[in-house]
Amino acid sequence: MKVPLYVGLFWYIPVYTISTITSPVPAMALFGFFNKEKKESLDKGLEKTKTSFFDQLSKAVVGKSKVDEEVLDELETVLVHADVGIGTTVKIIDRIEQRVARDKYVGTSDLDRILREEIMSLLEENKGGVAADFSLPDTGGKPYVIMVVGVNGVGKTTTIGKLASQFHNAGKKVVLGAGDTFRAAAVDQLKIWGDRVGIPVIDHGMNTDPASVAYDAVKKGVEMGADVVIIDTAGRLHTKVGLMNELSKIKRVMQKVIEDAPQEVLLVLDGSTGQNAVIQAREFTKATEVTALAVTKLDGTAKGGVIIGISDEFKIPVKYIGVGEKVEDLQVFDKREFVDSLFSKK
User: Fold this and answer.
1) 235 a known binding residue?
2) Is 79 left (phi over 0), alpha (psi -120 to 50) or beta?
3) Which residues neighbour 6 within 8 Å (Cβ) at sequence distance 6 or greater?
4) 151 annotated ligand-binding residue
């Protein structure tokens, strides 16, 4: 009996099972931090992407029973429109073509399941999702220093505030450094976050040396026995050389206090800009060593597929995603939950 098309398109693996283990295990047992509220927030935040994606996918396979060259061409268009990116889209299509050739007959009712598996496979390969919660690596008693980079308007300072709040709520001692000294709004915004949560914010005002702010923030972190120091940086799109020199200087002065600082360079990208976020990632990865990504504003866009393309192209883990306005809507990226939400029928 053929499976109805609409069932195939919304084929769903229950959240309480994990396909890579031999027997069903409650997802909460493996990912206890991902509670019902976070899951609902993630589902809601990805709603526009999911709706757009499945609407287009439905049109691509209407009247078709078999995954053939025409269906694959249509699928390629769907993935590109979802801002997965050309390179990653070609990779996914090639993998599906290989599966079709191997299995001889693949029905369109299987297409979303195959897509789900291939996207999960890409995220697994590219280190997507690196933490289970807002815990921190062992640094031998030193503060864990995070330098945050990204252009103006991506939600960089808001992301820092939300990060600081969640670290604080997890029982961590936090210090913030207002290193975006070229924008009064950035300094003021960070101070508001600090006052709201009760976290010290080191600032020298506008048009001052950001490296000096970073030095004093790290020094303050050491003095008070902080667990984490988060440094904001200027969000201007400099020339590559100017950006590289500025970020290198900030690193050098922090290393006078903690020799391996910053232990993390977090690049914040606006997911709603789609492929423009990819362009920004290219520029920043050329200018400095980026070790983690935060993708914001996914709740306001149908371009959530950009996470897949960014992860695949840069081989840098997506560590956080923003799926709403609330503090807790900045979530640690969990690749399984992300794919589950993207392909769920709800």
Assistant:
1) yes
2) alpha
3) 58
4) yes
Q: How many helices (H) does the chain have, and how many strands (E)?
A: 14, 8
User: According to the annotation, is 233 in a ligand binding site?
Assistant: yes
Antiparallel, parallel or unpaired: β 330-332 and 318-322? antiparallel
For the cut 70, the answer to whether the pLDDT of residue 29 exceeds it is no
158 is in an annotated binding site: no
User: Could you report how far apart the first and last alpha carbons of the chain are, in Å?
Assistant: 25
Q: Which domains does the chain have, with CATH numbers?
A: 5-125 (1.20.120.140), 144-334 (3.40.50.300)
Q: Is 156 annotated as a binding residue?
A: yes
Q: For residue 278, which of 258, 259, 306 has the smallest C-alpha distance?
A: 306
Q: Do the annotations mark residue 25 as ligand-binding?
A: no
Q: How far apart are CA 310 and CA 344, in angstroms?
A: 22
User: 138 CB contacts (<8 Å, ≥6 apart)?
Assistant: none
Q: Is 232 annotated as a binding residue?
A: yes
| 234 annotated ligand binder | yes
In tens, the pLDDT along 236-258 reads 765 566 778 889 999 999 999 99
d(CA 184, CA 162): 19
Which amino acid, 296?
A: T
> Does residue 13 surpass a pLDDT of 50?
no
Q: Closest Cα partner for 345 from 65, 99, 57?
A: 57
The proportion of the chain whose per-residue pLDDT surpasses 90, expressed as a percent, equals 52
pTM: 0.85
User: pLDDT tens-digit profile of 182-234?
Assistant: 888 899 999 999 999 999 999 999 889 999 999 999 999 999 999 999 999 98
Q: Is 296 assigned a ligand-binding role in the annotation? A: yes
Helix axes 240-254 and 275-287, enclosed angle (nearest 10): 60
Rounded distance between C-alpha atoms, residue 174 and residue 177, angstroms: 10
CA distance 334 to 136: 16
Annotated ligand binding at 139? The verdict is no
